[in-house]
Amino acid sequence: MRASNGLRWKDGLSCFARNCPESSRSWPGWRPPRWCSGRLPVSKRTLDLVGGLIRQERNRLNTRWRKVSSGTQAVIVLAVLRHDQRLSDMAGGNAVSASTVRRWVLGAGCWVLEVIRLLSARAPRLDRALKEIARVGGVVVLLDGTLIRTRRRTGRDNRKNYSGKHKAHGLLFLALTDEKGNLIWISAAKPGRSSEITTARRNKITGHLQEVGLGALADLGFVGLDDAPDDNPVIITGRKHQLTDAEREANRLLNRERAAVKHGFANLKSWRCLTKVRMHARHATTLLRALLVLANTEVQR
Length: 301
Fold this sequence. Notes:
By secondary structure, the chain is an alpha+beta fold. The chain is built from ten helices and eight strands. The protein has helices spanning 44-61, 70-83, 87-92, 98-106, 111-120, 126-135, 196-202, 205-212, 245-269, 284-298; strands spanning 11-12, 35-36, 140-149, 162-163, 168-177, 183-186, 190-191, 215-217. Strands 3, 4, 5, 6, 7 and 8 form a six-stranded mixed beta sheet that branches. The protein has a two-stranded antiparallel sheet with strand order 1-2. The two termini are 28 Å apart.
């Protein structure tokens, strides 16, 4: 697969057949390797960011020589995150042993974990993100939650990850965006059974908003988040009576402003590794915050 700067990664069915001696290619049933190529839809800015972080980390650690360059490592990791490619498949086309990659996944030297750790360190904290919005003249932020699906594991320990709302196993995340839909903060992972309003209270979102003088637009799932609001929140529903034309217009205006937060989640979930998180749940928070940095690097409204 070719990235925007011309680098290419390959996905091979036979890992090292091209490097094997001729004598080893004569066994019965041996077949030549098959390759597929394609384009990696990431910008040069994103590739330069990831490659630069890897080079800086290698220089800081004074690490030993590695078989692949920092640029190749960046392409492999971005392919895994963007297309949900399996590490063993990527290893086969890049002259890296699949067994070695599996050991890296289980240990601290995993390429993907190394890169997402470097990227997540660049994600802003909640207080700093809100202060930046207030500094540039922002008035409100958009608040919403989403469920990132995970593998369904057996046993009682995984029951807490089952979401009755979505009828699926997953982890709950809250996110804040600016008025244009740019992600500015994402919370730590919570079990899927958690409610959005309880998660918001534990993160003390209202307290941070009040410190910088910002408001928040959210859906009905956050009704009652602020126990003592300065003004009565405008919540118009049609459960008890038919809405008037003015109330419908108020709902349309509110929904139009809130729509931008969905764009932020769409940019985040364009990284297909979030289709179903297969790594351990303890790495999910680091993964989401790393993808926040990548999503903002790719798309900035």
